[in-house]
Design a protein that fits this description.
The protein is α+β, with helices and mostly antiparallel strands and 702 residues long. Among the domains are: 24-83 and 437-698, 3-Layer(aba) Sandwich (Rossmann fold); 336-426. It contains 13 helices and 37 strands. Strand 32 (469-473), helix 5 and strand 33 form a beta-alpha-beta unit. Helix 3 (72-84) crosses helix 13 (681-698) and helix 7 (524-539) crosses helix 8. The longest helix has 18 residues, at 681-698. The two termini are 14 Å apart. The mean pLDDT is 95. InterPro entries: AB_hydrolase_fold, Pept_S9_AS, Pept_S9A_N, Peptidase_S9_cat, Peptidase_S9A, Serine_Peptidase_S9A.
Length: 702
Amino acid sequence: MSVFKNLPTPPSAAKKPVSDARHGITRSDDYAWLRADNWQAMFKDPSILDPEIRRHLEAENAYMNVAMEDTKPLQKTLFAEMRGRIKEDDSSVPMKNGAHAYGTFFVTGGEQPRYFRIPRDGDVKDETIRTVLLNGDKEAVGKSYFRLAGLDHSTDHSRAIWGYDDRGSEFFTLRVRDLATGQDMPDVIENTGGGGVWAPDGKSFFYSALDENHRPSKVFHHFIGTPQSEDRLVYEEKDAGFFMSVGGSLLDDFIFIDIHDHETSEYRLLSTKDMTAEPKLVAKRQEGIEYTLTEGGDVFYILTNDGGAKDFKIMEAPVDNPAKESWREVVPHKAGTLIINHMAYARHLLWLERKDGLPQIIIRDRKTGEEHAIAFAEEAYSLGLQGAAEYDTDVIRFSYSSMTTPSQLYDYNMTTRERTLLKTQEVPSGHNPDDYVTRRVFAPAWDGEQVPATLLYRKDTPLDGSAPCLLYGYGAYGISIPAGFNTNCLSLADRGFVYAIAHVRGGKDKGFAWYENGKMTFKTNTFKDFIAAADYLNQQKFTSYAKIVAEGGSAGGMLMGAVANMAPEKFAGVIAAVPFVDVLNTMLDDSLPLTPPEWPEWGNPIESREDYEQIASYSPYDNVSEKAYPPILALGGLTDPRVTYWEPAKWVAKLRDKTTSAAPILLKTNMDAGHGGAAGRFQRLEEIAFEYAFAIKVVGKV
């Protein structure tokens, strides 16, 4: 491709065929050797990576650097723009809890948050009353990667659990901080999921531990001052196909053990009145039935799809008998209106729901049953429900934004219905919403469905097919991509791009059925929907095929690999971040962290020939063939436990071997990070600037 000139010969991975026979079908994988045999140990100590694999990844990085050398001034400009839109010394609005209010702030130039508290009704601007509980920048000194898991204070406000990952492998270490002295106690809890839940007396806490395959399989009870080896095992999940997490109630009455995969859930409860007891089962797991609990004093409120409630309903049950036979419906199922989550407080029940792609918050008076909604009038917007840290309250917190409107944070009185604007996101370098347009359009899919797409562009952008476009998609696990404010994409809009989000099947943007029709045997709908969005944007002259850059990450990276195979001529370039592209091999490897829990999402090709053939029909790596691929940028993380580094490495090797075009295939592996890339707020901006520079380059704007 003409925008990439005078490139050296790209790395060529050695072919070392490995055969695999399943269900009478034999496949050969030339690049299986890129998967390190000692990957579990390598995630904890990257220095032990096989030297041949390391040399190959480093050669790929060197080639990528040459290919992108001419964009370095642009990357610096983009980074400066994006950084200029961030209030560097920003502070959150503290959340009231007991005698204190807790929040976070950043300092100018700081990469990591600092956790603080002030007196309950103190002025957050008064630094003399602010106590810094944890300084993330200080903790990160000397570490090439550092990610905080947050800070959770005990009920008596004397101590806090905090966690960190300093390898990018998502094996978090927990520490306990004495909030009076600011010093950490001797307790060090290794290989956890990143958080803990305090017992009411503040003398012990519960946490989930990860096994050698990075699965949260056990819940332990730790007493302050004792070694981790003496922690009591509270519950062990023997089925590797289920995730597990531990949480607590606002009233400190219960410890919740949440066990689930992508379509089935089960809760076990431990009363804090007797923490030595066995956790009590709420409702036995039943395939396809999901439920979540929140405590409402003398009752539990249960959000569930039981009984055919595809878009969910809310039930209640007595606290002393939460078994399914005691469930009673309080919010009925409404087809097409998806209840996303729910919360309960002393006098109110509330939930966040989505209808026709737009969210609203519904509040019900628990005594009278009267309901009202919090909604907004823009064509496309995002709502976030934060709730409150205290049970006995009438005031909750929510956030609102749109593609053109910076985030606004409100306190809302559920009784008086009064909204109090607490904070509007500042854009220090300036932002005029009137300079931009947000649109919600619908692209006709192959089967007559209408695929929503959210667009952002400057008012002066010509809509004659000449504008470049970055088209983003995800489409998996029922995750919906909100139409929220994103200061980064303004750098593209200001350069004449149309920034578009395709709300493809596989998410829940149009209800639960939208998710079901984009998974398992219907997975290809996700890919076809994304191509349909590209077709619509081309036909309506928002852009043209020669100007569309596709972007997606993780499961969205699978989407990128699939559309590159299906319709390479419709994209000027493809950006695939930590792409899940080696789907069949990964789903056949039950030792990998996410494989057994992912079978309900993709299918189990080990047990089922039908699932095997279905996955094989679209798995991006397995379907690379001789055709003219557009420029492709793949990004991976060496210690990524979710999408392992070898997936993009193998994919790029095969693409480069098969493509019939001169367009470069680039691989960038972050040798110091995992799935989320760099953890620091400005380090992350550097990565986004790099991706955007690639997009701008391939449409000829550099």
